[in-house]
Amino acid sequence: MLSEYRTTAQTTWDTIADSFDTTRQRPWRYCLRYIDSLPPNALVADLGCGNGRHLFPCAERCAHVIGVDLSQRFLQIISKKLSQKSLTNVSLVHADVVQLPFVDNSFDALLFLASLHNIQGKDHRQRALTEVARILKPQGTAVISVWSRWQERFYRHFLKQLLLRNREFGDIDISWRQHNKNIPRFYHLYSKSEFLQELQDAALTIERFDAVRIHSKRGADNYFAVVKKR
Asked: Where would I find the H helices in 24-154?
């Protein structure tokens, strides 16, 4: 159920937020290139903004950025950082991407980075992508990223899952082990075809698609798509 997923997800990310913040400071180059392509007058939402590592460079370029996250602790971390910066064009909203509190056709651009894969349940993930399409302006674009399934460190897990079929294929729990923690996090790792199909099912036109290696030694560990409202 949606309420159970929300409660579990919020508790998980609230618990690891401070540890996450110390280890995830540098924005991805792929995302910086996208941000640099946005017009200075753009209204942008960062969906699943986490500790703000992409929100801040976006705010430095664009007219206004709204950070959205299910974790209240992440929003508190961003708020503290904002008090130390000169940025006055950032708003923060505590919400679930599956059910966003924005009217249709609100945003010129969206960042939806490394968050879709943390939503449990195919129906919930599809609803999140439908929300992306709903709140984008007709000519608006979004950059969306997910972890790829067939990266080397998970290869054996998913080969075994093919045989067992004991949960939705692609689902996995990955523990956060930094700072002496051991907190399981839900992930749904995507195949390329599955990701592309879900974007198309949400009435999003794919402008660009890239398989990117960020941490993996061999092969792509992330998929990135730049999409437009159809």
From this structure: 29-36, 55-61, 72-83, 122-135
| Partners of 66 in the β-ladder | 45, 91
Q: Per-residue pLDDT tens for 136-146?
A: 999 999 999 99
> Which of 84, 93, 83, 87 is CA-nearest to residue 64?
87
Task: Specify the amino acid at residue 98.
Answer: V
- Residue 13's closest CA among 48, 47, 42? 48
Please name the amino acid found at residue 77: I
Paired tokens of 154: 């998970």
Tokens matching residue 6: 């929300």
Structural contact between residues 156 and 177, judged by C-beta atoms closer than 8 angstroms: no
- Cβ neighbours around 30 below 10 Å, total: 17
Asked if pLDDT for residue 157 goes beyond 70, the answer is yes
pTM: 0.94
Architecture in CATH for domain 2-148+189-229? 3-Layer(aba) Sandwich (3.40)
pLDDT value of position 183: 95
Enumerate the H helices of the chain as residue ranges: 2-23, 29-36, 55-61, 72-83, 122-135, 155-164, 192-201
Q: Which residues of 102-122 are buried (b: 16+ CB within 10 A; e: fewer)?
A: eeeebbbbbbbbbbbbbbbbe
- Convert the pLDDT of each residue in 4-63 to its tens digit: 889 999 999 999 999 999 998 899 999 999 999 999 999 999 999 999 999 999 999 999
